[in-house]
Amino acid sequence: MRWRVLFGLSLVGNLILAAGWLWFTPGSKAPLTRSAILPGATNGFQIKTAVVVRRQFFSWQEVESNDYPTYIKNLREISCPEQTIRDIIIADVNALFARRRDLEIFTPEQQWWRAEPDPTVAQAAAAKDRELDTDRRDLLSTLLGPNWEGGDLVSLPRPSRLPIPLDGPVLGLLPTDVKQSVEQISLHATDRVEEYLAAQRRAGKSPDPAVLARLRQQTRKELAAVLAPAQLEEFLLRYSDNARTLRADLGQLKFFNATPDEFRSVFRTLDPLNDQLAQLDDSTPQGAQQRDALVAQGEAALKLALGEKRYAEYRLLHDDRYREAYAEAQKGGAPETTGALYEIKVVTAEELARIKEKAGLTDEQRAIELKQAELEQLKANAQALGQEDPTAPAPVTPKPAIAKTHVVANGEGLNRIAQIYGIQPNQLRAANPGLNFDKLKAGDQVSVPYSLLYPTPPIPGR
């Protein structure tokens, strides 16, 4: 149970009992009636104070119980108001299930290395959240009755802004007071940034990256005071501006698909450098030199963090042509051809640039050469992927030329007609696709194609 709530109720209860004890103890002021304050109203009668004997103090240990029904019964026995009982139980159960959500639900936000949320993880998280919420409601209905929602925290304050999720195997295990401190630091940091941006807008100025960097550093110092180093890094990987920028950059590369270890290594490399770059004044020659030195330092550290091969892929994916080649290779089912397709694109781009700059060509000649270069690229792509040449004309099966029409006589069949004209039976079938030669009858017409006996069709007019 929440000790703050219990402590508050204990204090209020003790104050009420103490006041009652003072009020009803002999020698204290008795309740006054109208007759008691009028002159001579006693008329010889003595006013006596009624004494009520009750326990002056009690301990919350006598009320506390790990069993909810017993706990509710104990609260009612000390005349705790029903609304207060309802608020205590709802708050306690909500806190219990909030803790379970933090530890049992794997959310897309916990995959801080992904540029885009995993739909499968999002669906599973939503399903688990619905399951826990159903369990929470069922428990509250059992404890407080089916109409408990009518008094759901009606007398408790509600946050005006939702706190950031502190869940998962690292942040989800934070004690409640530490979570509250982190949430307050985060909210105050957001307020500071918004106040600064609003002031800059009112002054008609653009935000100064150096000021924003200093505000971020202030927030990190406050977080470092309440979080262990591993917890602070987890928080920064999920919620810092530098981590969000890194996710966006990697997302534009599309096919890099950084692993958690790679993302963490890149973040550790670029995070301090980005803050230094943000606070650097590069309007002077000295500042520009410092910027170039920091950028070079970052590239060297990035290469070391990713390794030779992955760093080369990381750099290539910044080229639109390489990303296109990668996508075509994946679509063609041959990812190993990415390099070849990329080389083809590079060579084609150089050839197109040469043709555009070539002197002495008419617009029509230039268009023809450009089109020819594009066709050569398509042919090279198909060859690299092991596909048919898309520029080759489709094979055309010529229709057999018809020499004459034969009228079937009684007893004639496919073989007899083919023999008459010195051609193969399959030639007759090809020339008559709609005719069933197994059911020929007298009077049917058969188209007879030209054969060696009739090598060419007659020329009209001769």
β-strand number? 2
Q: Structural class, judged by helices and strands?
A: mainly alpha
Shape descriptor reads flat
Strand order of the largest sheet: 1-2
Cα-based radius of gyration, to the nearest Å: 44 Å
Quote the beta fraction.
under 5%
- What is the mean pLDDT? 80
H/E series: HHHHHHHHHHHHHHHEHHE
Alpha-carbon distance between the two ends: 113 Å
> In this structure, how is the largest beta sheet organized?
2 strands, antiparallel
Low-confidence stretches: 1-7, 14-58, 456-462
Tally the helices: what do you get?
Answer: 17
Helicity level: 55-70%
In summary, what is this structure?
It is built from 17 helices and two strands.
Topology:
Blueprint: H1 3-24, H2 68-77, H3 82-104, H4 119-144, H5 168-171, H6 176-202, H7 209-224, H8 229-239, H9 241-253, H10 260-278, H11 285-306, H12 308-316, H13 320-331, H14 338-357, H15 363-385, E1 402-407, H16 414-421, H17 425-431, E2 445-449
Antiparallel strand pairs: 1-2
Helix pairs in contact: 3-4, 6-7, 8-9, 10-11, 11-12, 13-14, 14-15
Task: Characterise the protein shown here.
- With 462 residues, this protein is an all-alpha fold.
- Among the domains are: 64 residues, no CATH class; 55 residues; 48 residues, LysM domain (Membrane-bound Lytic Murein Transglycosylase D, Chain A, Roll), CATH 3.10.350.10.
- A two-stranded antiparallel sheet has the order 1-2.
- The longest helix is centred in the middle third of the chain and has 27 residues.
- The protein is flat, with a radius of gyration of 44 Å.
- 13% of the residues are buried.
